[in-house]
Design goal:
Number of domains: 2
Distance between the termini: 28 Å
CATH architecture of the largest domain: 3-Layer(aba) Sandwich
Oligomer: single chain
Number of helices: 9
Order of helices and strands: EEHEHEHEEHHEHHEHHE
Bound molecules: S-adenosylmethionine
Radius of gyration: 16 Å
Shape: globular
Structural class: alpha/beta
Helix content: 25-40%
Strand order of the largest sheet: 5-4-3-6-7-9-8
CATH class of the largest domain: Alpha Beta
Number of strands: 9
Strand content: 25-35%
CATH superfamily of the largest domain: Vaccinia Virus protein VP39
Length: about 200
Protein backbone atom coordinates (compact mmCIF):
# COMPACT_ATOMS: atom_id res chain seq x y z
CA UNK A 1 0.00 0.00 0.00
CA UNK A 2 1.11 3.57 -0.65
CA UNK A 3 2.12 5.61 2.37
CA UNK A 4 3.29 9.21 2.64
CA UNK A 5 5.60 11.11 5.02
CA UNK A 6 6.28 14.69 4.06
CA UNK A 7 6.75 14.91 0.30
CA UNK A 8 7.82 11.29 0.02
CA UNK A 9 5.36 8.59 -0.97
CA UNK A 10 6.48 4.98 -0.79
CA UNK A 11 5.17 1.46 -1.00
CA UNK A 12 4.97 -0.32 2.38
CA UNK A 13 5.87 -3.97 1.98
CA UNK A 14 4.44 -6.91 3.90
CA UNK A 15 7.36 -7.16 6.36
CA UNK A 16 7.20 -3.46 7.30
CA UNK A 17 3.42 -3.63 7.71
CA UNK A 18 3.64 -6.73 9.94
CA UNK A 19 6.25 -4.98 12.09
CA UNK A 20 3.98 -1.93 12.46
CA UNK A 21 1.09 -4.11 13.59
CA UNK A 22 3.20 -6.12 16.02
CA UNK A 23 4.45 -2.99 17.78
CA UNK A 24 0.97 -1.53 18.25
CA UNK A 25 -1.31 -2.18 21.22
CA UNK A 26 -4.26 -1.46 18.90
CA UNK A 27 -5.08 0.24 15.62
CA UNK A 28 -7.25 3.30 14.92
CA UNK A 29 -8.16 4.18 11.31
CA UNK A 30 -9.41 7.65 10.35
CA UNK A 31 -11.00 7.67 6.88
CA UNK A 32 -11.00 10.91 4.90
CA UNK A 33 -8.39 12.28 7.29
CA UNK A 34 -7.83 15.52 5.33
CA UNK A 35 -4.66 17.26 6.51
CA UNK A 36 -4.00 14.57 9.13
CA UNK A 37 -4.28 16.86 12.13
CA UNK A 38 -6.63 14.46 13.97
CA UNK A 39 -4.23 11.52 13.42
CA UNK A 40 -1.27 13.48 14.79
CA UNK A 41 -3.34 14.54 17.80
CA UNK A 42 -4.37 10.92 18.57
CA UNK A 43 -0.86 9.58 17.95
CA UNK A 44 0.54 12.00 20.55
CA UNK A 45 -2.24 11.18 23.03
CA UNK A 46 -1.91 7.37 22.59
CA UNK A 47 1.75 6.56 21.90
CA UNK A 48 1.23 2.77 22.14
CA UNK A 49 -1.45 2.77 19.43
CA UNK A 50 -0.94 2.83 15.67
CA UNK A 51 -3.05 5.68 14.28
CA UNK A 52 -3.68 5.48 10.54
CA UNK A 53 -5.06 8.30 8.42
CA UNK A 54 -6.41 7.49 4.96
CA UNK A 55 -7.17 10.08 2.31
CA UNK A 56 -7.45 10.08 -1.46
CA UNK A 57 -5.75 13.48 -1.73
CA UNK A 58 -1.99 13.31 -1.19
CA UNK A 59 -1.38 17.09 -1.24
CA UNK A 60 -3.43 17.44 1.97
CA UNK A 61 -1.15 15.05 3.81
CA UNK A 62 2.26 16.52 3.03
CA UNK A 63 2.59 18.98 5.94
CA UNK A 64 1.12 17.02 8.85
CA UNK A 65 2.69 13.73 7.87
CA UNK A 66 6.16 15.32 7.92
CA UNK A 67 5.75 16.41 11.55
CA UNK A 68 3.66 13.45 12.81
CA UNK A 69 4.84 11.11 15.59
CA UNK A 70 6.29 7.71 14.60
CA UNK A 71 3.09 5.88 15.57
CA UNK A 72 1.11 7.84 12.94
CA UNK A 73 0.84 6.34 9.46
CA UNK A 74 -0.69 8.05 6.44
CA UNK A 75 -2.04 6.00 3.56
CA UNK A 76 -3.02 7.40 0.18
CA UNK A 77 -6.09 5.47 -0.93
CA UNK A 78 -9.67 5.79 -2.03
CA UNK A 79 -11.80 4.69 0.92
CA UNK A 80 -14.06 2.84 -1.54
CA UNK A 81 -11.14 0.62 -2.65
CA UNK A 82 -8.90 0.20 0.38
CA UNK A 83 -5.68 -1.85 0.44
CA UNK A 84 -6.47 -5.44 1.50
CA UNK A 85 -3.78 -5.26 4.23
CA UNK A 86 -6.15 -3.07 6.28
CA UNK A 87 -8.83 -5.76 6.53
CA UNK A 88 -9.79 -6.64 10.11
CA UNK A 89 -7.13 -4.55 11.85
CA UNK A 90 -9.10 -1.61 13.28
CA UNK A 91 -10.27 -1.55 16.90
CA UNK A 92 -11.41 2.05 16.38
CA UNK A 93 -12.69 3.81 13.28
CA UNK A 94 -13.49 7.46 12.68
CA UNK A 95 -14.94 9.37 9.74
CA UNK A 96 -15.02 13.10 10.47
CA UNK A 97 -17.06 15.45 8.30
CA UNK A 98 -16.97 13.40 5.07
CA UNK A 99 -17.84 14.88 1.73
CA UNK A 100 -17.86 13.71 -1.89
CA UNK A 101 -17.61 9.98 -2.64
CA UNK A 102 -16.82 9.21 1.01
CA UNK A 103 -20.12 10.72 2.14
CA UNK A 104 -22.04 9.27 -0.82
CA UNK A 105 -20.82 5.80 0.18
CA UNK A 106 -21.96 6.27 3.77
CA UNK A 107 -25.46 7.21 2.60
CA UNK A 108 -25.99 3.95 0.64
CA UNK A 109 -26.39 0.62 2.48
CA UNK A 110 -24.90 -1.46 -0.35
CA UNK A 111 -22.06 0.82 -1.43
CA UNK A 112 -18.48 -0.39 -1.72
CA UNK A 113 -17.64 2.09 1.03
CA UNK A 114 -20.18 0.54 3.41
CA UNK A 115 -18.65 -2.90 2.84
CA UNK A 116 -15.12 -1.53 3.19
CA UNK A 117 -15.98 0.09 6.52
CA UNK A 118 -17.18 -3.21 7.95
CA UNK A 119 -14.20 -5.07 6.49
CA UNK A 120 -11.71 -2.80 8.29
CA UNK A 121 -13.19 -3.46 11.71
CA UNK A 122 -12.30 -6.09 14.28
CA UNK A 123 -15.20 -7.63 16.26
CA UNK A 124 -16.54 -5.12 18.82
CA UNK A 125 -14.67 -2.26 17.12
CA UNK A 126 -15.94 1.26 17.80
CA UNK A 127 -16.96 3.68 15.09
CA UNK A 128 -17.38 7.43 15.51
CA UNK A 129 -18.85 9.32 12.59
CA UNK A 130 -19.38 13.05 12.41
CA UNK A 131 -21.65 14.46 9.71
CA UNK A 132 -22.27 18.10 8.87
CA UNK A 133 -25.34 19.69 7.38
CA UNK A 134 -23.59 21.53 4.53
CA UNK A 135 -21.97 18.40 3.08
CA UNK A 136 -25.29 16.53 3.33
CA UNK A 137 -27.12 19.40 1.61
CA UNK A 138 -24.67 19.07 -1.30
CA UNK A 139 -25.89 15.46 -1.66
CA UNK A 140 -29.56 16.50 -1.47
CA UNK A 141 -30.18 15.44 2.15
CA UNK A 142 -31.24 17.44 5.19
CA UNK A 143 -29.19 16.78 8.34
CA UNK A 144 -32.02 14.59 9.69
CA UNK A 145 -32.45 12.63 6.42
CA UNK A 146 -28.71 12.13 6.06
CA UNK A 147 -28.35 10.98 9.67
CA UNK A 148 -31.18 8.47 9.16
CA UNK A 149 -29.64 7.17 5.91
CA UNK A 150 -26.24 6.66 7.55
CA UNK A 151 -27.90 4.93 10.52
CA UNK A 152 -29.63 2.56 8.06
CA UNK A 153 -26.31 1.85 6.31
CA UNK A 154 -24.63 1.07 9.66
CA UNK A 155 -27.40 -1.29 10.79
CA UNK A 156 -27.29 -3.02 7.39
CA UNK A 157 -23.53 -3.57 7.64
CA UNK A 158 -23.16 -5.08 11.10
CA UNK A 159 -22.91 -2.02 13.35
CA UNK A 160 -25.04 -1.50 16.48
CA UNK A 161 -25.79 2.17 16.91
CA UNK A 162 -25.01 3.42 20.43
CA UNK A 163 -25.67 7.15 20.33
CA UNK A 164 -26.54 10.04 18.03
CA UNK A 165 -26.39 13.62 19.18
CA UNK A 166 -26.05 17.10 17.77
CA UNK A 167 -22.67 18.80 18.13
CA UNK A 168 -22.70 22.33 19.48
CA UNK A 169 -20.52 25.09 18.05
CA UNK A 170 -18.45 24.92 21.26
CA UNK A 171 -17.89 21.17 20.76
CA UNK A 172 -16.86 21.77 17.15
CA UNK A 173 -14.40 24.46 18.20
CA UNK A 174 -12.82 22.09 20.71
CA UNK A 175 -12.66 19.11 18.33
CA UNK A 176 -9.11 18.62 16.94
CA UNK A 177 -9.74 18.57 13.18
CA UNK A 178 -9.32 21.39 10.72
CA UNK A 179 -12.78 20.91 9.29
CA UNK A 180 -14.45 21.05 12.73
CA UNK A 181 -12.91 24.48 13.29
CA UNK A 182 -14.00 25.68 9.85
CA UNK A 183 -17.55 24.57 10.54
CA UNK A 184 -17.60 26.10 14.01
CA UNK A 185 -16.77 29.54 12.58
CA UNK A 186 -18.75 29.10 9.34
CA UNK A 187 -22.31 29.89 8.25
CA UNK A 188 -23.81 26.47 9.02
CA UNK A 189 -22.23 24.75 12.02
CA UNK A 190 -24.94 22.07 12.35
CA UNK A 191 -23.40 18.64 12.79
CA UNK A 192 -24.20 15.24 14.28
CA UNK A 193 -22.03 12.66 16.04
CA UNK A 194 -22.99 8.97 15.62
CA UNK A 195 -21.24 6.24 17.54
CA UNK A 196 -21.56 2.52 16.93
CA UNK A 197 -19.96 -0.85 17.70
CA UNK A 198 -19.54 -3.76 15.32
CA UNK A 199 -21.67 -6.78 16.16
C1 LIG B 1 -14.33 17.89 4.62
S1 LIG B 1 -12.82 17.04 4.53
C2 LIG B 1 -12.63 16.49 6.25
C3 LIG B 1 -11.21 16.24 6.60
C4 LIG B 1 -10.92 15.83 8.06
N1 LIG B 1 -11.61 14.62 8.42
C5 LIG B 1 -11.28 16.96 9.00
O1 LIG B 1 -12.20 16.79 9.82
O2 LIG B 1 -10.60 18.00 8.96
C6 LIG B 1 -13.26 15.51 3.71
C7 LIG B 1 -12.04 14.66 3.29
O3 LIG B 1 -12.52 13.44 2.73
C8 LIG B 1 -11.63 13.07 1.69
N2 LIG B 1 -12.32 12.12 0.81
C9 LIG B 1 -13.44 12.31 0.10
N3 LIG B 1 -13.77 11.21 -0.59
C10 LIG B 1 -12.82 10.27 -0.28
C11 LIG B 1 -12.62 8.92 -0.66
N4 LIG B 1 -13.45 8.30 -1.50
N5 LIG B 1 -11.55 8.28 -0.15
C12 LIG B 1 -10.68 8.89 0.69
N6 LIG B 1 -10.83 10.17 1.10
C13 LIG B 1 -11.89 10.85 0.60
C14 LIG B 1 -11.26 14.38 1.01
O4 LIG B 1 -10.05 14.28 0.26
C15 LIG B 1 -11.16 15.31 2.23
O5 LIG B 1 -9.83 15.36 2.70
Amino acid sequence: METIRGKYASHMNHAAWSACLQQAASVHIDLGTGDGRFVSHLARAYPRMLIIGVDACRENLVDSSRRAPANALFIIANACALPPELAGVAAHLTVNFPWGSLLQGLLQPDSSLALALRRLAQPAASLDLRLNAGALADEGYSLEQGTAAVQTMLAHNGFNLRAAHQLTAAQLKAFPTTWAKRLAFGRDPRAVHLSALTR
